Q: What sequence folds into this?
């Protein structure tokens, strides 16, 4: 028996589907099998194609597969090989991309930058707390009133009212027109109560309520 002609790897890859579906000539069968015996890639490819062909074969109890079904099998095998080829091309392009030293350096630098920024965001100290004039602050020891005056009360009238009742402005007016007023420290509890009652009845005062020291302004 004559030794089969040797074929290249590319030729063997093209003939593998037809070997799997048993449509090659005898000489081609021997040539492909001889190549596959020494080529791990082709043996692996042939095993997958034969497994695919077996999975599409009818069971022993069914009728013989007609020719159109065999053509369908061949089409499936062709599609499988084409998909394999696309995967190889994509892997080859990806490998070529990473083989470029400049690209690899760029990727490495990008990864390091992302890691540094992420670490900085996780470890940076919290923002320092600060306060403004509008930030509520505890009132110092003393006696206070929260008062809302009539909007038509002018500055001179307000000054006279405060002076007459021994009160001074600690804060205000707020956005809602609320003043925080402090009683003179020389006043007795009875004096403070009398002043508060008088303010609640005053036509220039809409609201007056004592608050304790230590409360927020």
A:
């Amino acid at each position: 028996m004559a030794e089969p002609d040797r074929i290249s790897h590319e030729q063997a890859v093209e003939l593998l589907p037809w070997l799997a579906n048993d449509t090659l000539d005898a000489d081609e069968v021997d040539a492909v099998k001889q190549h596959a015996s020494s080529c791990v890639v082709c043996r692996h490819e042939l095993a997958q194609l034969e497994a695919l062909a077996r999975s599409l074969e009818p069971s022993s109890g069914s009728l013989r597969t007609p020719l159109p079904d065999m053509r369908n099998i061949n089409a499936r095998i062709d599609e499988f090989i084409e998909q394999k080829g696309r995967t190889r091309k994509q892997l080859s392009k990806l490998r070529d991309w990473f083989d470029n030293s400049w690209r690899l350096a760029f990727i490495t630098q990008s990864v390091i930058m992302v890691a540094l920024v992420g670490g900085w965001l996780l470890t940076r100290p919290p923002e320092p707390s600060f306060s403004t004039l509008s930030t509520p602050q505890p009132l110092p020891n003393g006696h206070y009133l929260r008062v809302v005056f009539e909007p038509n009360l002018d500055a001179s009238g307000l000054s006279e009212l405060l002076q007459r009742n021994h009160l001074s402005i600690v804060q205000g007016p707020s956005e809602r027109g609320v003043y925080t007023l402090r009683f003179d420290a020389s006043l007795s509890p009875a004096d403070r109560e009398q002043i508060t009652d008088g303010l609640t009845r005053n036509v220039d005062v809409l609201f007056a309520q004592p608050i304790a020291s230590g409360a927020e302004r």
